[in-house]
Structure formats: C-alpha cells, structure tokens
Amino acid sequence: MSNHDQHESSHKSVKRKEMSRRQFLSYTLGGAGAFMGAGMILPMVRFAVDPLLVKKTESVFVKVVAESEIGNEPKEFKFQINQVDGWYESEPQIAAWIARGQDGKIYALSPICKHLGCTVNWNTQGDNHYFCPCHGAEYTVDGKQLKVAPKPLDEYQVKLQDGNVYLGPIIPNTRV
Amino acid sequence: MIKSIYNWIDERLDITPMWRDVADHEVPEHVNPAHHFSAFVYCFGGLTFFITVIQILSGMFLTMYYVPDIINAYASVDYLQSKVAFGGIVRGMHHWGASLVIVMMFLHTLRVFFTGSYKAPREMNWVVGMLIFFIMLGLGFTGYLLPWDNKAYYATKVGIQIADSVPIAGPYIKQLMQGGDIVGAQTLTRFFAIHVFFLPGALLAMLAAHFIMIRKQGISGPL
Amino acid sequence: MAASSKGNEKVVYVGDSRIRKGTSPNIPADYSAFPGKSEAFIPNFLLKEWMVGVVVLVGLLVLTIAEPAPLGYPADPLNAAFIPMPDWYFLFLYQLLKYPYVSQDYLVLGTVGVPGIAFGALMLAPFLDTGKERRFYRRPIASSLMILSLIAIVYLTKVSWDFYTHELRLTNTIPEHKLREEKAREAAEKGQERPNPMKKEKPAALVDADDPATAILKKAQCITCHAADLQGQAGIPALAGVGDRLTKEEIAEIVTNGRNNMPSFKEQLSTAEIDQVATWLAKQKAVQ
C-alpha cells in the first residue's frame, strides 16, 4: 500500500479522483431508484413468467377401446381427457387413429397434421393414405410423411391392459 | 455510444432543455425536510404518484391472468392469487396500493388545503387535482367489482342504486353502468373496460396537466 | 427565402419549417424571490423524496406479504346472510344514507345532495375562498368547515365500522374472506387440496332410476325445467338428491301448489300420481 502511495505522490500530474457531492448524490439517487424499481418490478415479472417455470404435469393413460376392436385398417376413436388449463378445467374430446401394424403391435396416431396443424383423415382419396384437406399433405398408414409435411404424424403412447387399449401422452413417431 | 445516440437525437429534437428544466429547477428551502422537518408534509403528492405507478404496473400484470367474465372472473382471481408464484403479492400490491393511494391523496389534498396553496394563481391546478381525486375514487369503485365475489357484487349493487336515485338522469345512468337488466355479465365487462381503459386514460391526462401546471407555476411560496 | 434575409424578417421560422421561432423562451420561475437555501431537484431533492418512497415501498411489500388481499366467495345474488360493506373510503357515504332526512323520501339528498354540495364546494374552494391570506388560522371559515367535515368523515366511518362489527357478532358471522382463508389453511394442514368454491360437487346419482314414477315426471314435463338428468339448471334446483333437503310431504306440497317460479301441478296430476312422484323423489338422497 505504502508503495502505491509513494508512487502516486511522485507523479504530481495524477489527479486523485474524488467523488464530488453531486456525484455521490447522483449515485445514491440511482441506487434508491434501482431499489424501488426492482422492488416493484421483480415480483411482477416473476408473476408473469410463472408459466415458463411450472412443471409439466404427467398426463395419465385413458381407456379408449377394447383390444379386439382394433383391425389392420386404421379406425378413428374419440376419447375424453381431463384438461386443466389454468383456472379452466374441462374434459375435451380428442381423437386417435388406432390400428394393428404389420408387426402385430397396436399403435395410435394423432390426426394433427405436422404441416400446419389441420386434422388429417384416413383414405379419403382411396389410396390408403392419411390425407390432410388443408394443403394436401399425405402420410402412410404408419404416419410417414409423403408430401408437404416435414415430419411424420405423432403417436400416442399405448398401454394394453386387461384386453383394453389405453392411450397416454403424445410422443414423436417411433414407427418410421 | 449512448452519448453519441443522445447527441444525434438532441441535434434534431433539442431534447436537452426538456429534461434540464425538470432536473435543474431549484427546490426552495421551505419544502425541504432537511431544513425544516415539518416540510415532510410536502412529500404526499410525490408518494401518490409513486403508488399510482405501482397501481398501473401491477394492474397491467394482473390482466395477464384475469378474465372479465362472470363465470371465470372469480376462478381466475382465485387462481392467480393462490396458484401463480407471487400472485398473492402482485394482487396484494394492487389491493393495498389502492387504499394507500387514497390515503396519500387525501393527505396531499389536506396539505394543499391547509397551506392555502390552491389560491390564485393555482386555482386550475386545484380543480384538476380534485378531478384526479374523483377518478381515483371511480377506479376504486369499479375495481372492486372485478373479482366477482359477494362483496364485489353487493357493493356494486348499492353503488348502482345510488346512481339510480339521481333525479331525472338516474335511471339512464343506472342502465349505462349496469349494461343489462341485472348486475351481471354485462356490468362486469363494462366495469372492466372503465377500470382498465377509460379511467386510467383520463387519469394520465389529468396527471400530465397537474404536473405541467406545477412546473409552470412552481410550488407555492412559504407561509 | 427566409434564410437569405434573416436579419430583416419580422417573423423568423425554425429551420425549413413554417414554425415561428419563439420569442419568449420558457424560463422556469426561479426561487430567488424566496429567502433561504434552495437546491436542485435532481439529484438533491429527489433523493429525499425517494428515500421516503423506499420506506413506503418496503412497507407496502411487507403489508402484502403479511396480509393477503381479501377474496370472498363467488357472487351469489340469493345470499341473504352476507353483510355487504364497501371499501373503507366509501364508508362515510354509506353510513350517511342511514340517517333520517337523507333516506326514505329524502334519499336523493343523501346520495346526491349532501355529497354533491360537499364535494362541489371542495372542488370550487379556490373560487369560494378568494382572500389573499394563505395561513389556515387566518382563514377561519374555510378551515373550520374543512375540520368539521373531517370530524364528520371520521365519525361516520367509525360508526359504520362499529355497526358492521356489532352485526358480525350478533349474527355470529365470520367475514367470507376470513372464512375462506381459514378453510384453505385447515385443508393445507391436513394435506388436502385447497377447497375450490367454483368446483361443483359431484352430482347426486339417481336412486331407482327405472321406477314408474319417472314416467310421470316426463308426462308432467318436470324435465323441461329440471333437466332431463334431473340435475337442474341455472336457478332451478336439481331433483337428484332432493331427498336430502325435503321430506316427502314437503315435496308433495310443492308439486301440488308450486313454489317461487314453479307452477302448481294439481291440474295435470292426480293426487295419487303426486304421491307416487313425491315418494320417489324423497328417496333421492345423495348419501344413502
């Protein structure tokens, strides 16, 4: 320290930077302002970004149909899920196209087109494809995209229990 | 960098005098609590404004969750208060801030009254200040219908009934406030619009007038 | 054109616009007229203001944490047990309306007259109190009127609040927002989910749904109002679970003579049929 002091005193031209009263007041003012701003805004910002920070709730499996009703041809089944959207709790109906694949496994596709989110339908063009009426996207029976869409159709997680098909959360297609 | 941007704008718009006028104006001794402690009575106006800012900000954030609809209003308030992080605090700031703003404004009004600061040449500023007072009361009245709980409902019914008792115009005012035939869905959306758009708009205009006049006329002199 | 002959022009415009150059710049009033020390608004004076602001903000935040904003139960127009109270700053007006000469035939005096005169006078104060004197003790009329109004406001507010607390004690009511908080706290302590007043209870299931009495219900068109599943609809009570609320005799009485908006059914149904329906409805209990 003393070394440093000596060094400084040896240079006459070095001006010690002292804070003027006005500067001090300005910094204090800035500090008080920042404190007030933060005290006000931080709770509100945390309040606003809450949706980013809440944990996603695991969706449960819902019984949809008896296993025996599933054929090789995809068929549409509607089922109700319990949906809690903030303060609004509802039981909307959603659809799944369920079929038994070549490998004998039952799979369920979500009919939401991966292009822009319209609803696809099976075999409306007589070519055994899923067809989307909005922009003409087509998918194979396994949900593989043929035209327009960038990705294959999503799948529901399937669980078989006591001869019934249970559908769970939506996952990316595992069959293509 | 910031300085050069500032200079660029200043060259074109000459903004320095605007804020210099506010920043550098001299504040006289008689309102300065450092010289006379009793001068703290002069702080209530500033505090009213500070809490008004809190009210505006917290209100803006509350509308991210609130819905003005008789089925969902209560549910959304309940949700934002108990399920959303810091919801209790933000709603609390808005609720208690509303009371605090009335208190501060009341004290500010009394200060101005008892120091006779409303006298010439500041009559207009007093009238504008009273208008701000009424707008604040209006904000309080329209605000507490919004959660749509029993207190909200009955207080609004009484308030509308009071409006109804005005001679001649009463029934029309009532109908205008109520929207429909009952205090219900249409009343709630009306009160929401008034609380969130109309009154704050009027309030901001009045505040601007209030401040411009203070700047123009200066604080009233010592007694 | 203006640029070339700037000196001779009577009107000088700003730049290339048609805006006149101001002749009297807006110089703010300074306080050199006042004796004593003045100081700059920023940073000296504003700092003092903001120090108070910080205290107020901390106080407000502490208040919000200590005392959650009250929320009662959802609005229910049929709730007769609720004691309505406006916010505290309207209490004096609310109390005023209870006195003679400002209520009943004179209600308009209480709602418009007295407050109108008081607030009107306050608003026009600078035009009513036009003297030069600013000190309040040299303005006895204005000051005494204000002090009187303040005393009146404080008094009315206090009377109103006392009446409310008295009423609460008398009817043994806990204010709704307190009750709700209490229930939420109890549920939390037991580890249950917070009670949600918006959530309807599970509708009561029908008992003996294929009883012949249901045919009478269809015939008498009960289901057009009470809904096909007998769960009722807006403002009309559910018949499922009605046995918990009413006895067989009461049901028979209501069906025969009607109640509130419900018409009498003694024309459409025979006494035996009413008895059959009432017997069946009395069996409709949610809890067996």
TrEMBL record, chain A:
The main subunits of the menaquinol:cytochrome c complex are a Rieske-type iron-sulfur protein (QcrA), a cytochrome b (QcrB) and a cytochrome c (QcrC). The chain crosses the membrane at residues 24-45. One of its GO terms (cellular component) is membrane. Residues 98-167 form the Rieske domain. The lineage of its organism: Bacteria, Bacillati, Bacillota, Bacilli, Bacillales. It comes from Paenibacillus darwinianus. Component of the menaquinol:cytochrome c reductase complex. The Rieske protein is a high potential 2Fe-2S protein. This is Menaquinol:cytochrome c reductase iron-sulfur subunit. One of its GO terms (molecular function) is metal ion binding. SUPFAM superfamilies: ISP domain.
UniProtKB/TrEMBL annotation, chain B:
The chain crosses the membrane at residues 39-67, 96-114, 126-146, 192-214. Its cofactor is heme b; heme c. GO terms for molecular function: electron transfer activity; metal ion binding; oxidoreductase activity. Keywords: Cell membrane, Electron transport, Heme, Iron, Membrane, Metal-binding, Transmembrane, Transmembrane helix, Transport. InterPro entries: Cyt_b/b6_N, Cytb/b6-like_sf, Cytochrome_b_N_euk/bac, Di-haem_cyt_TM. It comes from the Bacteria. It is found in: Cell membrane. Residues 5-223 form the Cytochrome b/b6 N-terminal region profile domain. It is a multi-pass membrane protein. GO terms for cellular component: plasma membrane. The keyword Transmembrane helix applies. CDD domains: Cytochrome_b_N. GO terms for biological process: respiratory electron transport chain. The keyword Cytoplasm does not apply. Component of the menaquinol:cytochrome c reductase complex. The main subunits of the menaquinol:cytochrome c complex are a Rieske-type iron-sulfur protein (QcrA), a cytochrome b (QcrB) and a cytochrome c (QcrC). This is Menaquinol:cytochrome c reductase cytochrome b subunit.
TrEMBL record, chain C:
The chain crosses the membrane at residues 50-66, 106-128, 140-161. InterPro entries: Cyt_b/b6_C (IPR005798), Cyt_b/b6_C_sf (IPR036150), Cyt_c-like_dom (IPR009056), Cyt_c-like_dom_sf (IPR036909), Cytb/b6-like_sf (IPR027387), Cytochrome_c550/c551-like (IPR051811). Residues 31-159 form the Cytochrome b/b6 C-terminal region profile domain. Residues 208-285 form the Cytochrome c domain. It is found in: Membrane. SUPFAM superfamilies: a domain/subunit of cytochrome bc1 complex (Ubiquinol-cytochrome c reductase), Cytochrome c. Signal peptide: none annotated. Residues 180-204 are annotated as: Disordered. Residues 180-203 have a biased composition (Basic and acidic residues). One of its GO terms (cellular component) is membrane. The keyword Repeat does not apply. PANTHER family: CYTOCHROME C-553-LIKE, MENAQUINOL-CYTOCHROME C REDUCTASE CYTOCHROME B_C SUBUNIT. This is Menaquinol-cytochrome C reductase.
